[in-house]
Each structure stands twice: as structure tokens, then as C-alpha cells.
Design a protein that fits this description.
Blueprint: E1 7-12, H1 15-37, E2 40-44, H2 48-57, E3 67-71, E4 73-75, H3 85-94, H4 113-127, E5 132-136, E6 158-161, E7 171-174, H5 176-179, E8 185-189, H6 195-202, H7 208-213, E9 218-223, H8 224-227
Parallel strand pairs: 1-9, 2-3, 2-5, 5-8, 8-9
Antiparallel strand pairs: 4-7, 6-7
Helix pairs in contact: 1-2, 2-3
Length: 229
Amino acid sequence: MMTLRGAKTRLFETADEVAAAAADLILAQADAAIAARGAFRLVLAGGSTPTAAYRLLATRDARWDAWHIYFGDERCLSLDDAERNSVMAAGALLARVAIPPAQVHPIPAEQGAAAAAAAYETRVRDALPFDLVLLGMGEDGHTASLFPGHAIASDPLVVPVHDAPKPPSDRVSLTPKALCQSAQILLLITGAGKHDALERWRAGEPLPVARVAAAGNTLAMLDRAAAGR
């Protein structure tokens, strides 16, 4: 089993198995949070494996009326752009289940990075702590829109991101200060293209994903392609 600093790991054969296990864990966390507090606060991620998990969730029964949805990051694109995480999540899950619209909290990234970060800061502060934060990892070791080589502010909960190394260059991201205030962080990492970043993380390189995982409540679900096994 691959050992990643700051995270527990579970290895699966395929990306589809990772998505299925993630859907099961999300539902279990939802049941526990609703039983304890009457609400489930979930932060969604973009990416193909999270999207597959969302599609599976949409086929399951849940106390959707108690779910509250937030986003770990967003691209500064028009409100209906298919590349936005909020649009992807709506198509895969949110428009297919009975979560009250008032309990879905997209990042208003269409306003521009700075204005959207300022607006979402208050929304996130009022929601903390989260019950579950779902994240992915890029081939460079970024997570949410926290990129290697970019300074990561320690005080705010939400930051504007400029000059991102992949388009669009302007984004909005939750910071480690916000992401780590969660009962559980779940990282979904699949595909051979992620293996080099995992090795760099394992070697102790201070990648953004490693900084977030260092909170100590992180579970990384990997497929064999990413793990190189």
C-alpha cells in the first residue's frame, strides 16, 4: 500500500471502484451527520472521478432535504459554462435529487475572482465546520485551485486565484484553513498521470495537496494506475 504523509490510503483496482466507494462513504457520512445534527454539509470537487461518484449518488436514496452543498473551487466563467464545477455537479447530481435549491451554495465566480472570493468568505464562515470535503488532485499536485508555486494565504477562508497554470487563469478557491475544518477530507486520485505527483508527495515535497492532507483527517482513495501498482 502506498503511504502518503498526512493521509490514510485505500487502494482500488479501477477508477470506477473508487467512484463507487466514494459514493458509499459520502452516504454514510451524510447519515451520521444528519443523525447527529440534522444536516449534512458537503464540499464538492470537480473532475471525472468525483463526477462519476455524483452520478452514482443520484441513483440512491438519501435524506436530500438535509444536505447543504458547497464547492471547493470554481472557474471564473459565465454562469452556464459547462466547464464550471457548479454546472457539472448540477448535471450529475444536484438537478436529479431533491436538495432544496436554497441549500446549494455555488461560488459566484461569474462576478470575477476577487468579488466572488469576498462574497463566498462569509458563506463559508457561516457553514464551518464541514462534515465532508471532497477533493481531487491534479498531475502537478494541485488540489481545489491551490497550485504549486503559488503562495497560499493562511488567514482567509476563500481566495481569488490569478495566473493559474491551466485555463481559465482566474479562479476562486477555498484555502487549507477552510478545507481542513471538516470531519473528513476525501481525496479521489485516479489515473496513471497522477503517479508522479503521488511519488513527490510521498517523498515529502510540499505540494498543495500534501498541505491540505496534513490536517490529519484525510482519506485518499487511489486506483492501481495512480498508485503504480
